[in-house]
Fold each of these.
Amino acid sequence: MSKKVRVRFAPSPTGGLHLGGVRTVLFNYLFAKQMGGDFIVRIEDTDQTRFVAGAEDYIFNTLKWCGLEPDESPLHGGPYAPYRQSERKESYRQYAEQLVKAGYAYYAFDTPAELEEMRNKFKTAENPSPQYNQVLREKMRNSLTLGEQEVSSFLSEGMPYVIRIKTPLNETVSFTDMIRGEVSFNTSQVDDKVLLKADGMPTYHLAVVVDDYLMKITHAFRGEEWLPSAPVHLLLWKYLGWLADMPQWAHLPLILKPDGNGKLSKRDGDRLGFPVFAMDWTDPATHETTTGFKEKGFLPEAFVNLLAMLGWNDGTDNEIFSMEELIHKFSMERVHKGGAKFDYEKAKWYNHEWIKKSGVERLELGVRNVFEEKGIVITDSNLLLKVIELVKDRCTLLPDFVQQGSFFFQSPAVIDTDSVKPKWDDKKNMFFTELIRAYELSTLWETSDLEKEFKELAAANQLKPGELMAPFRIMLVGGKFGPGVFDIAAVIGKNETIKRIEHMLQLLQN
Ligand code: GLU
């Protein structure tokens, strides 16, 4: 029987979640769901110096917003708890010690000053930052260079030490990446990474391998920036005797700046005016807020859809996929090796498509919120739904609903009389005065009735309806935008329509 698929997203909670991070979650999630497997979130917080308050909550809120709920996590619990590495501290030491005993790792007693000295002493033009590696470890204070006695007395005296992996010289290690195929490394390029720190905490390298093993992870998908760490992990899987259980890896392509020059960073977003984080993130130290896709007015369906298309397609021209469709169609083999350029205009296009595609009820809450943020409180839900139906095809981001629809709920604050004035004359004035009377008397208030009356009156006055519609629109909405003008009149009702025509006539008299 084949093993149950178990994948994990293993973030270090150090700040807002970059869209590349959410895409990693998404690909993990899609794969797990397609295979009937489990999606685990494990918090990799062993580096206490990088602890950032609120970052973990932020991650879970983002996953919730995107609809990427884990099956197991510190919040959801699960059979392999705890899911926070800081709470698993005690489980790592034994493996580091096991490696020391087997000769694959060693104790290193070097002080920070000694390490600094080593870096200065061996620095050359070709090697500006010398590493603690196969060559230099011979020159340092560790259990490879010191006598056995000395080592045991250091240990019993409680001298601080770290445990480092003993990387072999000039060996080739390789694995098959689900996206890149066979990937090999020469171990001489790998330094002797610290596995267990002086405070007893594991480093990422040890913890990720131990936890992937203990949590029975079958597939590990992560960003391409982790590829250089892969040989260290491979050696650890091998030295711990777990190679047969090593997960299958996929290193996902980078998300690139719009011009394709390097990895997309938070700073690019600030510079170019688009979000890079999933949701707003406020740095607790600087109180600086970075805008997220959510607050910018993206629907989670669109966000998920656009992320999936950053590096993947289904082999056709189809670009719009729901989560269900993605679960069905996704395949790691179709993920490109090359980086995916981020295009904000395209991102907005996805949102526009999703707004058009969504039913009015789906949009109601989000639209209500954007109105409320602008101080427009909506009490009539039916009215709101009608407005959404009328304007949604014109909206790209949720706040566009305010621009496209606020005049349904309140008289326009600004009225563009300037574009009416040049063509205004007595005949038009007469027409609208009569229109007020006609509408006052009308017993029917549907779009088609209003249009009919308007056009009949225009004909009776020998005026072209086309010349009258533009001023009528400006009376009702304040400018040259919005859905069909008779639809607007039908929705805002008789009193409001007449009031707005009268208001304009007054403005034009002054
Ligand atoms: N803790 C790593 C991160 O912050 C996880 C990398 C991995 O998935 O192995 O992304």
Amino acid sequence: MSRQRRQGAGAEAVLREQPQSGHAEAERSESWQQERARVLVQARVIVVKVGSAVLADAKGLNLPVLEDLAAQLAALRQMPQPCDAQGTRRLVLVSSGAVAAGRAALASRGSAVETTGLAARQAAAAVGQGQLMQTWDKVFLPHGMPTAQVLLTRDDLRARQRFLNARNTFAELLQWGVLPIVNENDTVSISELKFGDNDCLASLLVNLVEADLFINLTSSSGVLAADPQKYPDAPILDHIDDVAALDLGQLCGGKTSVGTGGMYSKLLAARRAAQLGVPTLILPGREPWVIGRAFAAAGVCPVPAGHDPFERGTWVRPAHHAIARRKFWLAYQSDPAGSVHVDDGAAKALLHKGGSLLPGGVRAVEGGFQCGGLVRVLHNGESIGVGLTNYSAPDLKKIMGLKRHEVAAILGDAHYPEVIHRDNLLLDAVV
Ligand code: GLU
């Protein structure tokens, strides 16, 4: 039985069906409370993401909310660190709110526009992004924190060289003490370029800047133990031991109306961070001084005057065995371009024996991918992972199901023994 809080009949009903990690807790050397306190004390590089539903309301950006957040992030940056750490804590802010700000700006000038379509959303973001940055600049000014606007698409991180370029830029900004404020480059984002939402973008940045903590500020109090549409009294989970074991479809309700994420995408993002060995703290972004109070509860700083320590929100624990950053990058910087269906033997070899995928284990091929493309690996219709293929779809169709000597007879000797090498495969990918 997990130690997750499970009051409420509805929540019990849903959670009882969640697969549990079993040995997960037994193997951990510290409780989740100890882990939360330790990480908050030690975190040096922190990605903080804040959604539109926190920053904006029907009238656009909510200035007092942005002012409060700027004061909190300035305080977080200066919070004491372990004695071997140098300089201040390094922060990256992922901020939504461009579409909401743009929509409100247009409405205030009497040109209310329909912004449900993709092109209209992109145009509204173009109107609002400048305002969003101006407002952040203004609220960080009294704290002496210079800011930098960084707009990214997934495509920017797809090519390894561009990923490394972006990493160098972030390193330089952080070295200078500048706060990077990141948003998806909505103007050029079309479906295959989109991160999907800023939760996804933030989880990719956790890898890019090698963060050791991800704080996601949301419009809700934390992760509810059951779909709130069905179980309105569902309690907040104070922690999640094994985010990969949660049935997100059952757990999450609808999306919030202002942002695009909802709790579903927050948990997917937390799951990606967990794979890297990075915990996520999901906090209610409109709770006054919530970051400072959470750090005060961990003993990092004094409790701010007039406030209580904040021990709530949801702590999502990192995976026991973090995956290599390179594997994370290859699995998540682009969408899979196709699928390979594998037989029982191949699935067993991949899942339980640490094997690579060989041509003999492939049953079917879908999509028109190239050699080196990212593909989904499916077994009985279920995704078991993603990986980089050594063969294009047409070549793979010629050799699927064949043994090595038979492959050589078709493609010649200069072929790869594996369709997907183990090192280029991420099992249990969040795609
Ligand atoms: N990039 C969008 C904006 O700034 C938000 C995307 C999201 O809500 O995740 O408005």
